[in-house]
């Protein structure tokens, strides 16, 4: 059973300064070393060989990990020479990731070695208020901690994702969220003290982007765009290895870029926004018109995978619109990779192909041709994993 750490008073400010690119690079290099150490103790020379990092870089990161209590070192011999054996510590500390969506809440527990220990989701009623969502998250968290054989005392902190813009100056959900009942709620104040450990609040697309470079196969990508396509459409941006937040944290609101000049009125008040033509809600509404009753997003995906002509047309139109919006961003920031997330990832090339066509058509040729577009490999837990990654990237918590 993991040993819980003693309770201590901590700073509950969930919005520390965003790390610069050098800090983010060090953190990602540390993740590479931790991944190797998770398989067993290694010498520093072996760590350098397996990660491709220089011996000096490995030495500096190991020293920092030892100082933070993440690892211990002991003298040994390797090929007849003196060496330093590095051992990853397992003190039972955990990071929590919480993803609160329009109809669900998901919680993951992860160890300091970036291994997921528990992962589960539960349904929420449509139109739920903040109190309902936070209550459900707390119940699910305690359930998973019980299954893991530990308590809240072992938790370093929780990263919480919300589908809407967050004012990082205050930690408050602002107008434009897909959960209008949450607007004006300060998650840090209402949730942090209640749980008894630090809470970090962020937009779910930002956490999805962070997850791609932390848990996914894209750790070496410096410039990445994560596009979450669901009831709402949002983007998370990685610049120089770090999440880009802009002035007050309101970035990536791609769903409210104008695609059709005189289109439908969007929930934001404007006309012809991307969400009015390419959100899952729009796609489902279009297909439900020919059905006996409303269909679900999963049924939409199943129909497309089965070759249903109408479903394929709806998805193709949405994909082209998404590609046009992506092209506008790609022309501005020139990302190496665009990763698509959300409930449509099972569609794979059925959705990716029209997005790529839209990108190629509307982007500067060299930008369109050099920008890869892929589906997220992290599935439904993408945003929750991003929440856990936020906690694991706070080295000051590891010493508390």
Descriptive keywords:
13 helices; 5-stranded mixed β-sheet; 400 residues; 15 strands; globular; alpha/beta
What would a concise description of this structure say?
With 400 residues, the protein is of the alpha/beta class. It is built from 13 helices and 15 strands. The model is unreliable at 1-20 (pLDDT under 50).
- Tally of DSSP β-strands: 15
Sum up the overall morphology in one term.
Answer: globular
Q: Give the strand order, joined by hyphens, for the main sheet.
A: 6-5-4-7-10
Largest sheet: 5 strands, mixed
Mean pLDDT across all amino acids: 87
Regions with little confidence, pLDDT below 50 for 5+ residues: 1-20
Q: Please, how many helices? A: 13
Beta content: 15-25%
The termini sit apart by 20 Å
* H and E order: HEHHEEEEEHEEEHEHEEEHHHHEHHEH
- Rg over alpha carbons: 22 Å
Helical residue percent? 25-40%
Structural class by SSE content: alpha/beta
Structure description:
With 400 residues, the protein is an alpha/beta fold. It contains 13 helices and 15 strands. The protein has helices spanning 21-37, 44-51, 55-67, 130-148, 187-195, 204-214, 275-278, 280-288, 297-305, 309-333, 349-362, 365-370, 382-392, and strands at residues 42-43, 71-78, 81-88, 94-100, 104-111, 116-123, 155-162, 166-167, 172-173, 199-203, 224-229, 233-239, 242-243, 337-341, 372-375. The strands form 4 sheets. The protein has a 5-stranded mixed β-sheet. Strand 5 and strand 6 (116-123) form a beta hairpin. Helix 1 (21-37) crosses helix 3 (55-67) and helix 2 (44-51) crosses helix 3 (55-67). It is globular. The two termini are 20 Å apart. The model is unreliable at 1-20 (pLDDT under 50).
């Amino acid at each position: 059973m993991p040993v819980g750490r003693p309770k201590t008073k901590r700073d509950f400010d969930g919005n520390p300064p965003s790390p610069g690119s050098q800090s983010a690079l060090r953190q990602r290099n540390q993740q590479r070393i931790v991944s190797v150490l998770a398989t067993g103790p290694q010498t520093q020379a072996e760590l350098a060989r397996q990660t491709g990092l220089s011996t000096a870089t490995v030495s500096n990161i190991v020293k920092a990990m030892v100082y933070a209590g993440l690892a211990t070192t002991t003298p040994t011999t390797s090929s007849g020479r003196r060496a330093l054996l590095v051992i990853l510590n397992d003190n039972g500390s955990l990071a929590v990731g919480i993803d609160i969506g329009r109809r669900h809440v998901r919680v993951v527990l992860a160890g300091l070695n970036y291994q997921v220990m528990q992962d589960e989701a539960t349904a929420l009623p449509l139109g739920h208020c903040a109190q309902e969502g936070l209550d459900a998250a707390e119940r699910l968290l305690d359930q998973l901690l019980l299954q893991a054989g530990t308590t809240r005392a072992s938790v370093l902190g929780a990263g919480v994702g919300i589908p809407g813009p967050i004012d990082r100056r205050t930690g408050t959900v602002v107008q434009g969220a897909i959960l209008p009942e949450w607007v004006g709620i300060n998650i840090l104040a209402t949730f942090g003290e209640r749980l008894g450990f630090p809470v970090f609040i962020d937009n779910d697309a930002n956490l999805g982007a962070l997850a791609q470079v932390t848990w996914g196969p894209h750790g070496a990508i410096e410039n990445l765009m994560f596009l979450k396509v669901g009831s709402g459409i949002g983007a998370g941006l990685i610049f120089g290895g770090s999440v880009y937040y802009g002035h007050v944290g309101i970035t990536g609101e791609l769903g409210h870029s104008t695609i059709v000049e005189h289109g439908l009125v969007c929930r934001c008040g404007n006309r012809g926004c991307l969400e009015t033509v390419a959100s899952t809600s729009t796609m489902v509404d279009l297909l439900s018109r020919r059905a006996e009753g409303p269909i679900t997003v999963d049924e939409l995906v199943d129909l497309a995978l089965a070759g249903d002509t109408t479903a394929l047309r709806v998805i193709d139109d949405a994909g082209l619109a998404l590609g046009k919006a992506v092209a506008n961003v790609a022309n501005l920031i020139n990302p190496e990779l665009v990763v698509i997330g959300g409930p449509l990832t099972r569609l794979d090339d059925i959705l990716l192909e029209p997005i790529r066509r839209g990108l190629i058509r509307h982007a500067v040729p060299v930008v369109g041709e050099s920008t890869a577009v892929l589906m997220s490999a992290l599935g439904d837990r993408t945003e929750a994993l991003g929440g856990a990654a936020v906690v694991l990237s706070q080295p000051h918590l590891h010493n508390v």
